[in-house]
Amino acid sequence: MENKETICQSCGMPLNMDPGKGGTNLDKSKSDKYCSFCFQDGKFVDEGTTLQGKIEKNIQIAVKMGMPESKAREQVETILPTLERWK
Ligand SMILES: [Zn+2]
């Protein structure tokens, strides 16, 4: 059994923190991999973005939420490259 917390495989957000309860697949079923901010109707909301672009965007969001930039950068740069979307 998989015991670790399920996080969005695009941005790293815990899916249980997603107010939309997960992205949606093309057939409108819920995605168990991506959050509602990243994935809608079977495609990425920010299709075409690069890993580096996503890292910078995530850092900005974390800083807005009150995290110091150095800490945000460290976390985001550790997590994002391991996610399925960016492999
Ligand atoms: Zn996401």
Topology of this structure?
Elements (H helix, E strand, L loop, with lengths): L38 E2 L2 E2 L6 H14 L4 H11 L8
Antiparallel strand pairs: 1-2
Helix pairs in contact: 1-2
The site of zinc ion has 8 residues, from loops.
List bound small molecules.
zinc ion
Radius of gyration: 13 Å
The tally of strands reads 2
Strand order, largest beta sheet: 1-2
Poorly predicted residue ranges: none
Helical segment count? 2
Give me the strand/helix succession: EEHH
Distance between the termini: 23 Å
Strand content: under 5%
Oligomer state equals: single chain
Query: Helicity range of the residues?
Result: 25-40%
Largest sheet: 2 strands, antiparallel
Average pLDDT for all residues: 93
Count of the separate structural domains: 1
The coarse silhouette is globular
Class per helix and strand makeup:
mainly alpha
